[in-house]
Specification:
Strand content: 5-15%
Distance between the termini: 16 Å
Shape: globular
Strand order of the largest sheet: 1-2-3-7-6
Structural class: alpha/beta
Radius of gyration: 17 Å
Number of helices: 10
Order of helices and strands: HHHEHHEHEEEHHEHEH
């Protein structure tokens, strides 16, 4: 896909995510829309995956450490063909559904790691990347982590371990949208200086606009070229990106659109690339 097509796909996936929250009457749309451009670029431009063989040994791995943002991931997996026919009603968070409120690898094809308890993704990703090195495989491990989530201590244990083992097959995207469930990251924990902290742990560090498709593609290429150290791409993102009534409003960390808001979403996200 070219850049315009990827932008259109990102907005399509945003609407699918909003649609599943609307129909399921529960979910986290704000965090999902924040990372839509990253997920789209990974699944439709970058990652080596096979929907017909989800457990292919040589596939690239993906971990959504901020697991509550899973509607956008489910949308991408469906569009990519992991479930055969595109899913019309995900039955998000319903009892017995394979599309739970946090991704579960035992239930959902294409999910490489269960997540939901925040903070674990980088450490698990480091383990996957280290395993790849030992097996002499050339796959990459991609992780998306939230900025609020980086307050968890296990994140930094994983970050330290990844640097110690020079895991240049590990690429982390830090979604720096400035919010966490209880309020702003600045008010909760202080300075959101993600880049400086990763640099102190000897990671390769880039800072980009997390909604700029070309910048995401370039950053991934740069990260893959940085040998001998893991990489972090710090992405400045907008929570609820793409919807006028949702952008940068932390009330949408978790919530369900009204009928009127659903129609606005349909117009704003399916009306063309933004």
């Amino acid at each position: 896909m070219n850049t315009t097509e990827l932008k259109q796909m990102a907005n399509h996936l945003r609407f699918v995510a909003v649609d599943m929250v609307y129909k399921g009457k529960d979910g986290h749309p704000g965090p999902a829309l924040s990372i839509a451009d990253i997920v789209t670029t990974l699944y439709f431009d970058e990652m080596r995956v096979d929907p017909k063989n989800p457990e292919w040994e040589d596939r690239d791995r993906f971990i959504l450490s901020k697991g509550h943002a899973c509607p956008i991931w489910y949308a991408a997996l469906s569009e990519k063909g992991f479930f055969g026919e595109k899913v019309e009603d995900f039955k998000l968070r319903a009892l017995g559904s394979k599309f739970q409120g946090h991704p579960t690898m035992q239930k959902t094809k294409g999910v490489d790691m269960t997540s939901g308890s925040l903070g674990n993704g980088i450490a698990i990703g480091a383990g996957m990347a280290l395993g790849g090195k030992h097996m002499k495989k050339d796959f990459n491990v991609f992780v998306i982590v939230g900025d609020g989530e980086l307050q968890e201590g296990i994140c930094w244990e994983g970050i330290n371990t990844a640097a110690a083992h020079k895991l240049d097959n590990l690429i982390v995207f830090a979604d720096r949208n400035g919010w966490q469930s209880g309020g702003s990251v600045e008010d909760t924990q202080g300075s959101n200086n993600i880049a400086e902290r990763f640099a102190a742990f000897q990671w390769d560090v880039q800072e980009i606009d997390g909604h700029d498709i070309d910048a995401i593609k370039t950053a991934i290429a740069n990260a893959k070229a940085a040998k001998g150290k893991p990489s972090v791409i710090v992405c400045d993102c907008v929570k609820g990106k793409g919807l006028s009534f949702m952008e940068n409003d932390n009330a949408w960390h978790k919530g369900v659109p009204t009928d009127e808001q659903y129609e606005i979403a349909k117009k704003e996200l399916l009306g063309g690339a933004q």
